[in-house]
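Below is a filled-in request sheet from our internal design queue. Each sheet records the structural input a requester submitted and the sequence that came back. We keep these sheets so that new team members can see what a complete request looks like end to end.

REQUESTER: design group, bay 2
PRIORITY: normal
MODE: inverse folding
CHAIN LENGTH: 292
BACKBONE (tokenized):
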């Protein structure tokens, strides 16, 4: 019986696992998930933070029972630490326990990780990144336990804007800092200006052309200092400065990367190594990139 191992429990990994089950009902399919939240809608996180979605469990596309009923073997809260592409073995770590599993085919669907900007003090308590359900629950817990009334968001992209809306609905005073001339650089400038006006109309303080230099703590408050001498105070800080492909596992295994820093694949999501595939935010199609 062929054994397929998929690393990653978000949309790409789950979709691939279910499709593999459809194509080969007899295959053994193991899904390696680094946290305890397979198949959760990370796009729905702002709606839980705003409390438009009351229960975080509602963000699950499918429960673990549904996935297991579909014939998938779930290995949760386990990290894939090494990939032997020639020997077709994957090293897994759960807490202090390490083991290896053999496979016939493997798919890397490790997604993306937040970009941590070079800001002094960015690693201290009260400063959060938002990428996973674990991030979401930790952030929500901090808001409640510290009775946060003010938030500073660093980054004016999609995540920054969505979280500004969510926190405003939650009752926090929000300051949004963006180092570029305008927020949401992926849209036409005129539309970006409309969005900025809309944010301001809902009480969000937007500061563009503002680069963060450092973050310090002052009597229980976080002070975000910019490069123009300004200071922006908050009870909590959210860093939303983008993401990059999570290629650590693939890179350590010697899989080639594309120019964008993602795993290089062809249109069939194949890497140059037989029976090793990759999908999702961690990949870049060589055919697509060659036409740029």
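RETURNED SEQUENCE:
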């Amino acid at each position: 019986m062929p054994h397929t191992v998929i690393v990653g429990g978000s949309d790409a990994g789950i979709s691939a696992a279910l499709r593999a089950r459809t194509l080969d009902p007899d295959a053994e399919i193991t899904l390696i998930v680094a946290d305890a939240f397979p198949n959760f809608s990370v796009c729905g996180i702002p709606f839980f933070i705003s409390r438009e979605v009351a229960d975080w469990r509602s963000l699950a596309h499918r429960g673990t029972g549904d996935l297991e009923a579909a014939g998938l073997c779930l290995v949760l809260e386990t990290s894939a630490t090494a990939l032997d592409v020639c020997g077709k073995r994957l090293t897994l770590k759960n807490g202090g326990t390490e083991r290896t599993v053999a496979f016939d085919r493997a798919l890397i669907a490790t997604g993306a990780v937040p970009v941590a900007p070079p800001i002094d003090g960015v690693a201290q308590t009260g400063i959060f990144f938002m990428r996973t359900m674990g991030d979401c629950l930790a952030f929500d817990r901090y808001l409640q336990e510290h009775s946060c009334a003010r938030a500073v968001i660093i980054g004016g992209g999609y995540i920054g804007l969505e979280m500004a809306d969510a926190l405003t609905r939650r009752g926090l005073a929000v300051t949004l800092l963006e180092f570029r001339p305008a927020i949401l650089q992926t849209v036409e400038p005129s539309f970006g200006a409309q969005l900025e006006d809309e944010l301001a109309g809902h009480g969000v303080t937007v500061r563009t052309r503002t680069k963060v230099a450092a973050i310090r703590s002052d009597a229980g408050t976080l002070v975000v200092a910019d490069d123009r001498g300004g200071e922006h105070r908050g009870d909590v800080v959210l860093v939303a400065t983008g993401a990059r492909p999570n290629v650590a596992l693939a890179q350590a295994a010697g899989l080639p990367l594309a120019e964008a820093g993602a795993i290089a694949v062809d249109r069939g999501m194949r890497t140059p190594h037989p029976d090793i595939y990759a999908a999702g935010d961690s990949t870049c199609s060589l055919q697509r990139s060659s036409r740029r």
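SHEET NOTES:
- Confidence is low (pLDDT under 50) at residues 288-292.
- The longest strand covers residues 212-218.
FILED BY: M.R.
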